[in-house]
Structure formats: C-alpha cells, structure tokens
Amino acid sequence: MSRFAIERHYQAMTPLVTLGKNIHTAGRLEPALIELVLMRVSQINGCAYCLDMHSKDARAAGETEQRLYVLQAWRETTLFSERERIALAWAEELTELTSREAVSDALYEQARQHFDEAALVDLSLLVGVINSFNRLNIAARTVGGSYTVGMHK
User: Where is the signal peptide (predicted)?
Assistant: First the structure.
C-alpha cells in the first residue's frame, strides 16, 4: 500500500516532468536508448512502479521482450549496440556513485566517442530524472502494475 499518493503532488514534480520531456524532444538520444536507460536505472534502484511503466512504454515503442529480459545482464549479451552499452554503463556508474571517481575517465572517453557533449549532458540529466522518480516512488511505496501506456504523457 502507498504511503502517499504521488498524483496529489504532481505540481511539485512538474520541473522533473518538463526536464524529461525536454530530453525526449531534444532528439539527441534515441527513444529506444532512453527507455533502456530508464529501465536499467529502475532495475538498479528496485522501483516496481517505474519498471512497470518503462517496460510497457519500451514495448509500445517497439523494444523487444528479449532485450528487456536480459537488460540486467547486458554485458553478457550481443543484443545491444556499442552506443547502448556505453549509455548503460554511464547510467549504472552515475546511479551507483560509489565514490567521486565513480564515472571513470575511461568511460568518459568511450562515451565521448559515441555522444557529443550535449547528448552526454542529456544522458546525465536523464539518469538524474529517473533516479529522482525512483526515489519518490520508493519513498511513497507506489505499487507497480497499474500503469497504462501514455498515462503520464
């Protein structure tokens, strides 16, 4: 059961929602890549509501079930492009932040080969946005399973 209803506080979340929409519409990150990052960060954080939402949105956008099934073990598959792999590594390191050096120089150099500066900023902001939503939903104990595609558009 939820502790509090996030919907009642939607106005407070408007800046996060707007930032997420701006990242999508900027077009520097592919929609499929965005959904993979949102899913992977939500897996790390254990946010059931966000996993429900982003798995459904990803499937509606054409993502394959197979890639979603193995996303947690993406390093051990050949199903993801080099750009996707770097984005997933960036998202993981930025989410986990085990130290000030968590996002390594080596990963940064790899990322710069696949993302221009504006796209890398968008990717970092995307990770920040989904981490914020994960934390809000986890704090509220929002129950997953009720999301329908397009519900929050």
Answer: none
Q: Taken in order 92, 121, 129, 144, is the CA torsion positive or negative?
A: negative
Residue keyed to tokens 């077009």: 27
> Strand, helix or coil at 53?
helix
Q: What is the pLDDT of residues 14-68, one digit of tens each?
A: 999 999 999 999 999 999 999 999 999 999 999 999 999 999 999 998 999 999 9
Region label for 29, one of left (φ > 0), alpha (ψ between -120 and 50) or beta (otherwise): beta
- DSSP letter at 97? -
For the four alpha carbons of 53, 54, 55 and 60, in that order, the dihedral sign comes to: positive
Q: Domains (ranges, CATH) in the chain? A: 13-140 (1.20.1290.10)
Q: What is the distance between the alpha carbons of residues 17 and 112, in angstroms, rounded to a whole number?
A: 27
Q: Which residue reads 């966000």 in tokens?
A: 50
